[in-house]
Amino acid sequence: MPRIAAALLLIAAPVVAQPHSGVASSRSMPELSDLALAACAAAGVWFARAKLRARFRRKD
User: Fold this and answer.
1) Rounded to whole angstroms, what are the CA distances from 27 to 22, 37, 44?
2) Maximum CA pair distance of the chain?
3) Which of 52, 13, 20 is nearest to 36 (CA)?
4) How far, in whole angstroms, is CA 35 from its chain's centroid?
5) Which of 23, 34, 51, 56 could disulfide-pair with 30, CB 3.0 to 4.6 Å?
6) Which of 32, 43, 20 shows the shortest CA–CA distance to 51?
7) What whole-number distance in Å separates Cα of residue 7 and Cα of residue 13?
8) Are the CB atoms for 33 and 16 separated by under 8 Å?
């Protein structure tokens, strides 16, 4: 699983990384990276809770 995640990150890195223009602008809405981080965090919490539920269900 970690190998797959690392491969996906290496594949996606050139697409996501864009050079900074050096000009600051006002933000009217969240950036795509902010939304991606929130989605990853939600997926991580869901995954951990599902694994813990299965672990405690198996002990009984």
Assistant:
1) 15, 17, 27
2) 59
3) 13
4) 9
5) 34
6) 43
7) 10
8) yes
DSSP code at position 60: -
Rounded Cα distance between 35 and 30, Å, is 7
From CA 27, how far away is CA 43, in angstroms rounded?
Answer: 26
Our CA angle for 18, 36, 7, nearest 5°, is 70
Gap between the Cα atoms of 18 and 59, Å rounded: 48
Per-residue pLDDT tens digits for 20-58: 677 877 888 888 889 999 999 999 999 999 999 998 887
Total length of the chain = 60
